[in-house]
């Protein structure tokens, strides 16, 4: 029984290695991935990346776990309310995979924090899962300028159908207010929308009249996060 309770640092990979091989595991172990935003989409992406063998995760989110997160964010529990989202997710990753390197950055991405993410150590992939249009644009532009592979999440609120999710380029998005605003902002800066990969839902949002806060389920953001993590892992393995 004790063998099931106490596992070594490599036991987690025994079901993954037959699929991707030792070289694949090493590629993932050597990779650094930054996830901006640890909400409904980002939290599931972070966990999937940790379980898939990414060696170094940098989790960036200045928010704390709130009761309204309980229906869709993987770190949201009664026991974690009011705690830093990035800190909780970092601790969760370490529980899953002893030996993983996880940096929790409990702050928001903005003009005052930008430099710490785009100077210094090399980054293999960036996943943008934040809601702010201004800083989504800034993240994407900085990644493009530095030739860092990046994937961005578009709107997942007011949707119910995870099967409508796909990864496509920003120029092919539709019926999504966040994606529309992102297209307009990037086009003004002369950025080719076909160069921007995104996780996108083809489902039209179900907006209720008079309701300002976006409604949410767990199905759509969770699936979006898993889809993003899958794309990132495959990209690193194919590099």
Features:
seven-stranded mixed sheet, Rossmann fold, alpha/beta, 239 residues, 7 strands, 14% strand, 8 helices
Task: Report on the architecture of this protein.
With 239 residues, the protein is an alpha/beta fold. The chain has a domain at 20-155 and 214-238: NAD(P)-binding Rossmann-like Domain (Rossmann fold, 3-Layer(aba) Sandwich), CATH 3.40.50. Helix content is 38%, strand content 14%. It contains 8 helices and 7 strands. The chain has helices at residues 2-5, 17-29, 40-51, 85-96, 114-118, 133-145, 177-188, 219-238, and strands spanning 32-36, 56-60, 101-105, 125-128, 150-153, 165-169, 197-201. Strands 3-2-1-4-5-7-6 form a 7-stranded mixed beta sheet, sandwiched between helices. Helix 3 packs parallel to helix 4 (85-96), helix 3 (40-51) packs across helix 8 (219-238) and helix 6 (133-145) packs across helix 7 (177-188). The radius of gyration is 18 Å and the shape is globular. The mean pLDDT is 94.
Structure, briefly:
By secondary structure, this protein is α/β, with parallel strands linked by helices. The chain is 38% helix and 14% strand.
Which helices and strands, and how do they pair?
Layout lengths: L1 H4 L11 H13 L2 E5 L3 H12 L4 E5 L24 H12 L4 E5 L8 H5 L6 E4 L4 H13 L4 E4 L11 E5 L7 H12 L8 E5 L17 H20 L1
Parallel strand pairs: 1-2, 1-4, 2-3, 4-5, 5-7
Antiparallel strand pairs: 6-7
Helix pairs in contact: 3-4, 3-8, 6-7
Instruction: Please state the structural category.
Output: alpha/beta
CATH-wise, what's the superfamily of the domain at 20-155 and 214-238? Answer: NAD(P)-binding Rossmann-like Domain
Distance between the termini: 40 Å
CATH domain class of the domain at 20-155 and 214-238: Alpha Beta
**Cross-sheet strand order for the largest sheet:** 3-2-1-4-5-7-6
Radius of gyration: 18 Å
Q: How much β-strand is present in the residues?
A: 5-15%
Query: From the structure provided, what is the oligomeric state, counting identical versus distinct chains?
Result: single chain
